[in-house]
Amino acid sequence: MSYATPDQFIRTFSERETVSLTDEKRTGQVDTDKLAFALTRASNVIDGYLVARYKTPWPDSPGILTGYCCDIARYQLATDYRQVSDEIRFRYEDAIKFLRDVASGRIGLGRDTAGRCGFTPAFASSDGSRRTEARFDNGY
């Protein structure tokens, strides 16, 4: 399962750019098979990092992973045609840095190790006053 759909990719980067990255046959149309394959490859990269802390693949996709999946797929498509701009490279490197931080435990995704969403309120008191804190079920 991909963390982003072809439609999400197109909405993120525009149909024009998507055509330029996928249209090998010069039809003027998005090659949806090539785009879907790129998103699957990008999702596999993401899973490679997430598997260090979570059971993957997930049946749903946290929004932040959708964006990073699009960035990784865009980079991979652009490198196929040697069209990598500084922006594309920066967004790819940012995605990989984020995934490394998730894998190392520096960033949590609000999931337990099985990949289920989990959020429970916890209460803490300091100086006699009550304040509400929140924590994720897995402690992050």
Question: Which descriptors would you attach to this protein?
Answer:
140 residues; mainly alpha; two-stranded antiparallel ribbon; disordered C terminus
Distance between the termini: 26 Å
Global shape? elongated
- Helix fraction, binned, reads 40-55%
Rg over CA atoms, rounded to whole Å, is 18 Å
Structural class, from helix and strand content?
A: mainly alpha
What does the average pLDDT come to? 82
- What share of the residues does DSSP label as strand, in percent? 5-15%
Strand order of the largest sheet: 1-2
Query: Can you tell me the residue ranges where pLDDT is under 50 for at least 5 consecutive residues?
Result: 119-140
Largest sheet: 2 strands, antiparallel
Number of strands: 2
Please count the helical segments.
5
Helix/strand order, N-terminal first? HHHHHEE
Structural commentary:
This protein has 140 residues and is mainly α. It is built from five helices and two strands, in the order H-H-H-H-H-E-E. The protein has helices at 6-13, 15-22, 32-50, 63-80, 86-104; strands at residues 119-126, 129-136. It is elongated, with a radius of gyration of 18 Å. Residues 119-140 have low confidence and may be disordered.
Give the secondary structure arrangement, pairings included:
Blueprint: H1 6-13, H2 15-22, H3 32-50, H4 63-80, H5 86-104, E1 119-126, E2 129-136
Antiparallel strand pairs: 1-2
